[in-house]
Design brief:
It is built from seven helices and four strands, in the order αααββββαααα. It is mostly helical.
Length: 267
């Protein structure tokens, strides 16, 4: 029996330190909701989680791009809807101007309205969306995923000959009204094609956006498996180490009291 070296107390202290450390780790996991508090907890898992998180952030950026591009197309279609009404009225005016019972003065009044509607269409051609021209005909490359892939957003130009020719027609004469009817009909056909392209753009980007939403959900689930703590399981672990710390503390006290028995030999 020795006094200077108490092996039982040393072992008890070491085990108590380990239990205290695990208890502290369990508390941190429960309070943070994360299984990985420091890189040493799961270095490989942390690396994978960082990649998944980065990918999800890029996907969010792509979704924002798609949403903005969709708004761009919806704005285009909103304007073209009004242009459609204007062209419909212009086509009506060309037929009215062909009425043989109308005088030149009557046709001049029709021409005045026809010209105003043409100016309106010309003005729409100058509109922009956040500084980007809506109707210059440029095809825009819209980012569709986290890797920078893109979708070609077909452009629309109100500067096309089909539109400008109709805008410049004069229906103040019978022959002019006849020619204008053909030109306006061509403009309406062109407008129908342009609006169909816009509809295709919006539909395609909706599919891309839905695809990214599904991918984000799956990546989030995968990342959760790596980083999110299972509260039920961790609560059991916490209870286990809490008991070990309490019993370890008691056993250390007992181990520290063992050398006192030497006093009985000295008495």
């Amino acid at each position: 029996m020795v006094i200077n070296t108490n092996i039982s107390a040393s072992n008890s202290a070491s085990l108590l330190e380990q239990s205290s450390k695990m208890l502290s780790q369990s508390l941190e996991r429960l309070s943070s909701g994360s299984k990985i508090i420091s890189p040493s907890d799961d270095s490989a898992g942390l690396a994978v989680s960082m990649k998944l998180t980065s990918q999800m952030a890029r996907i969010t950026g792509a979704q924002n791009n798609l949403s903005d591009a969709t708004s761009f197309n919806q704005t285009q279609d909103g304007y073209l809807s009004q242009v459609s009404d204007a062209l419909s009225r212009m086509s009506e005016l060309t037929v009215l101007a062909q009425d043989v019972t109308k005088t030149t003065s009557d046709r001049q009044l029709y021409q005045q309205e026809f010209h105003a509607l043409g100016d309106y269409i010309g003005n729409v051609a100058t509109k922009d969306f956040n500084g980007v021209s809506l109707f210059n005909g440029d095809t825009l490359q819209v980012t569709t995923d986290a890797n920078g892939s893109s979708f070609s957003n077909i452009g629309v130009t109100l500067g096309a000959a089909s539109y400008t020719t109709a805008e410049g027609d004069d229906i103040s004469s019978l022959s002019g009204a006849t020619a204008a009817l053909t030109d306006v009909s061509n403009a309406i056909d062109k407008l129908a094609s342009d609006r169909a392209n816009i509809g295709t753009n919006i539909e395609s980007m909706t599919y891309y956006n839905n695809q990214l939403s599904t991918l984000t959900n799956n990546l989030s689930a995968a990342n959760s498996q790596i980083t999110d703590v299972d509260v039920a399981e961790e609560s059991t672990t916490y209870a286990k180490y809490n008991i070990l710390v309490q019993s370890g503390t008691a056993m250390l006290a007992q181990a520290n009291s063992l050398p006192q028995s030497v006093l009985k030999l000295l008495s």
